[in-house]
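Render this sequence as a predicted structure.
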Amino acid sequence: MSQRIGIYPGTFDPITLGHADIIRRGSKLVDELIIGVTTNPSKNPMFSTEERFAMVEREVRYLGLTNVKVVGFNALLVKFAQKQGANVIIRGLRAVADFEYEYQMAGMNQQLDDAIETVFLMADVSLQPIASKLVKEIAVYGGDITPFVSPDVRSEVNARVEETGRKGDY
């Protein structure tokens, strides 16, 4: 039987407890899980690609998973997966709204390479509302992001917010 290599791609800006949940669970489904940290300027990142890469690497170390590695990429996902020898793309789903987009992307990826399967994992119920975009918004407006990210990520987000300035009347 050939080795199952999975890709879990994302911007991870910042990495949340929801991402960590998908990483932990996804790592059980494959022999090797590659976390693909990608650039996506349209998402207006709070952290540089290098900062996000380091953040994800640290969080993966904390999880203690020996079959997970972190790789940066700036390419078409299917091309990245092919280059890594992956045969599975793992995607996390939080809500129905995620499903429509992810379903469409999975269909397009299948058209590009039907040897790579997409597997959807539902986020743990307690983690489903967590989104990096909302974590950043909460932090920028002075809210507590403790329930959504690890202590180290919280410190990094709060430090970045202090550098760039908070908004609103809090």
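Summary. Residues 24 and 64 are 9 Å apart (CA to CA). The chain has one domain: 5-126.
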